[in-house]
């Protein structure tokens, strides 16, 4: 069984096709999980501040600036919201 790691919402990007990409990052900003949804599915209680993501679903973040931004966003999100709180 793969270990699950708590990741926090750090990005929510909308495109012109009605899709939203959610990015959840680890606290150290080293790894990210991205999920693409229809914008209608990404509203309300379906998007929470944090998710437990299986380790094998995480992608390494190679860019140092992006990692630093993710760390800042994780800190901000984790201080303002409970993990299961809709965001």
Automatic annotation (TrEMBL):
Question: Start and end of every DUF7967 domain?
Answer: 1-87
List, alphabetically, the Pfam families matched. Answer: DUF7967
List the InterPro entries. DUF7967
Q: Where is this region: Disordered?
A: 57-87
Q: What protein name does the entry list?
A: DUF7967 domain-containing protein
């Amino acid at each position: 069984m793969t270990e699950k790691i708590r990741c926090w919402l750090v990005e929510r990007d909308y495109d012109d096709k009605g899709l939203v990409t959610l990015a959840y990052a680890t606290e150290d900003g080293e790894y990210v999980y991205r999920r693409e949804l229809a914008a209608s599915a990404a509203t309300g209680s379906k998007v929470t501040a944090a998710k437990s993501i299986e380790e094998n679903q995480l992608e390494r973040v190679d860019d140092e600036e992006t990692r630093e931004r993710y760390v800042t966003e994780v800190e901000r999100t984790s201080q303002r919201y409970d993990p299961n709180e809709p965001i």
